Amino acid sequence: MQTTYIETQQISFQDFKNQILEDYRLGRISREMSYLGRREVLTGKAKFGIFGDGKELPQLAMAKVFRNGDFRSGYYRDQTFALAVNALTVESFFAQLYADTSVEREPASAGRQMNGHFATRSLNEDGSWKDLTAQKNISSDISPTAGQMPRLLGLAQASKIYKSVKFEGSEKFSKEGNEIAFGTIGDASTAEGHFWETLNAACALQVPMIVSIWDDGYGISVPTKNQRAKADIAEMLSGFQRKEGENQGCEIIQVKAWDYPSLLDAYARAEHFARTESIPVVVHVIEVTQPQGHSTSGSHERYKNEERLSWESAFDGMVKFKEWILNYSIEIEGKEEIIASAEELDAVDEEAKKIVKAGQKNAWENYQKTITDLIQSILPSVENLKGQNAEIEGYIGQFNKLVSKAKKDVFHLVRKSLLATRGTNSAERSQLMQKYNEIFEVEKDNYSSHLYSQSQWKAENVKEVKPVFSENSEEVDGRVVVRNNFDKIFEKYPETLVFGEDAGNIGDVNQGLEGMQEKYGDIRVADTGIREATILGQGIGMAMRGLRPIAEIQYLDYILYCLQGMSDDLATVQYRTKGGQKAPVIIRTRGHRLEGVWHSGSPMAGILNLSKGILVLVPRNLTKAAGFYNTMLQSDDPAVIVECLNGYRLKEKQPDNLGEFTVPVGKIEVTKEGKDVTLVTYGSTWRIVMDAAEELEKLGISAEVIDVQSLIPFDLTNEIAESVKKTNRLVVIDEDVQGGTSAFILQQILEKQKAFRFLDSDPLTIAANDHRPAYASDGDYFSKPSSDDMVERIYALFNETNPQKYPAIF
């Protein structure tokens, strides 16, 4: 077991002195970064700034107990901590402030996140994992208040899992589960539900987690007393305090932000509890100051009175730290020893200013050079066109008058020049066009890459392995197919685990995990509380540490609790780090075609719109669902898999190659061939569409039925357009609301696949009513598309074309 900070602090006075001075130096550098950063925004060189001034001392103390292999999940004020663990430099801090798109200069996000959002790179350039135990790790920050908390739970729980789970390569993710997950949050954000849900779950699960609450008395301009039931969050959390002999609850430590020795002691104790006893700890850091206010968007003088401002000036952490150093003395062997004189500390202050100014200057020059190089590479080609259109000289003149030039100004100039010379066939224009294509590809990579995996393990690369059936293949309930496939998965992939409400002891509400907990244990097949946001968070954090979690959300309707985390965190992990981090979570849920307002929703359009970056897979039966699980466990993309809720008791033939067969993503399946109309659908609605197609055959209409299988990605080989080319008619059938998923599918087919060219009739969508189905037994029939609806509306297409052959029904 690793030793803790408490157990290693037998040092000489000289070492003690050096540590203090190094902390003071880092604190001063961080403070100067905040000061200069604000000035850079106010002078127009950066767009927005939010800084960590006032929090230097607690973050220095936290950094002392942060070891290789540990993880932080925080928010945008932890610059001192990031500096102290070597995850940030002065230059990279300013590179992010200027939104430099270079991964080398701004490794946290390559200009994709505003300043103060920190991250370390967990992946090599090819998308493979680095050895995370050999580095200090920061999971990529997000801005939504308390949104970082659910992920923190998973990062911490992974340590507990690694104490008993081993697999090939697991040594790159954990050393016997001794790592701690550190979380940071502003005091006002503890009013958010995500904070309470995460802390509650952590106390129940007893995971090694340290949450630091930076309490400056305000939430932007709103005082703490107006934020929560109690102004003092530690008092409010007192019921969470663990009792001796009980395996529940957490430790709560309160400490002042300006009291350096007490901060060292607080974090040493917090580490000892978390690392040696595997329990969560809350460190409530009070009396935090914000010397420059909340952000560059406004001044804190507007809402803080003179008394408060005067107090903040006197109790500024760096001021108090300097006082403490100057007042410190100790007698050693009859000689009085001090840490530093006032002159020595003043020299450190001046050195910090020089270091920060030099780093800022380098960052600005590097950022500007990117734009200068772009201009020099393209402007001569634009100038070569001046003789071909008189307007171009004016465009160049306007461009040259710009005091500050950005990439968009360069592209605007080039595109206006190409527009002005349209129809001109010249070598000069061809050269400009070639240059434009070259620079466009570079910027497309800078701003739009890595929404999905670009590694060799991306889901699209997983080869299809068809299910094998034989004379001995049994007809079984659909739930048995998925259950027996999970059995093979857990046997094949020891890093795979599943957790959710009722997932463990009873084997999920539909028995798709029946007997799995008994066979594989309650670590790998686990029950959770009713807390969907942190079920997702467990999955994100575990996946960031090399595990392969399947986070089960009991019903599709309940995924709404997860949408914030799916949209703001999981869907953007690869994008906002430009391929520096990944979290290949599989979200397992079930839904569709049932009665009842709360168990029959189809929020697919919401998922599609809000969660670009996550694959959305909609199998029509449980065999297809099993194949998708097998596919995704070979991939490093995250995915949501929606099982058919009404399919668990329907009979399916069980494949002989369970755990091996795969369903390709982005691949449609033609389940019935036809020549008159193409019917496109997915999920549980597919069965009803197939029934309708048989009825249409009797009416002389040959319908081709296509199951899209995956919504994201969608029909990668444009096979649906080929079907429409044959049938000349298109109907999209969906149980989502009108203008929901059907609109997405229609856009993909008509616009992206250009299938409008082949239509002889208007495209038709058949969707659900805009309300959810009533619980009444016939709620589904009257709310969502029935076979009768489909037959009548598709028949009407042919009535319009040939009323004699297809006389009106009504």
Automatic annotation (TrEMBL):
InterPro entries: DH_E1 (IPR001017), THDP-binding (IPR029061), Transketo_C/PFOR_II (IPR009014), Transketolase-like_Pyr-bd (IPR005475), Transketolase_C (IPR033248). Residues 476-650 form the Transketolase-like pyrimidine-binding domain. One of its GO terms (molecular function) is oxidoreductase activity, acting on the aldehyde or oxo group of donors, disulfide as acceptor. It holds the Pfam family E1_dh. Its cofactor is thiamine diphosphate. E1 component of the 2-oxoglutarate dehydrogenase (OGDH) complex which catalyzes the decarboxylation of 2-oxoglutarate, the first step in the conversion of 2-oxoglutarate to succinyl-CoA and CO(2). This is Transketolase. The lineage of its organism: Bacteria, Pseudomonadati, Bacteroidota, Flavobacteriia, Flavobacteriales.
